Amino acid sequence: MAFRFRMEKVLSVRRIEEDAARSRYARARDRLERAEQACEALERRRQQCERELDELKSRDALTAERLHLYALHRAGLARVQEAAATELAEARAEAARTRAALTEAHQAREALERLREKERAAWQYRQGRKEAALLDELAVAQHRTNEEDSHGP
Fold this sequence. Notes:
By secondary structure, the protein is mainly α. Helix content is about 90%, strand content about 0%. The chain contains two helices and no strands.
């Protein structure tokens, strides 16, 4: 008779839940990485715009029209950066939430696996005791048979 864990179906569900949580966390991490890259790219664009403005000022080529265009461009870029920062905050929150869910699912699965191993060890112990008792019984029966054979009828 082989060991059968009484909660094997629950353990199977826990594994599926952990895999699903791992997938959700991976998607959240990808979203977070994209949001971080977008914010970094926008910051580089902002810095480039400021360098271009500084260059115009240093060459004394800054006109009212160029300054107005720069201000419009900078305002638009600020709006895009604000939206990107909001997306980044949401992505961070989602990554934290899905990581916590993954941790919880992982702990739930591990708890059941520890229970399974504990029950397996107890089952193996009981099986060993049953086998030892059977062997003892066979040895006693063999000894009785030998005793009867040696004393005769």
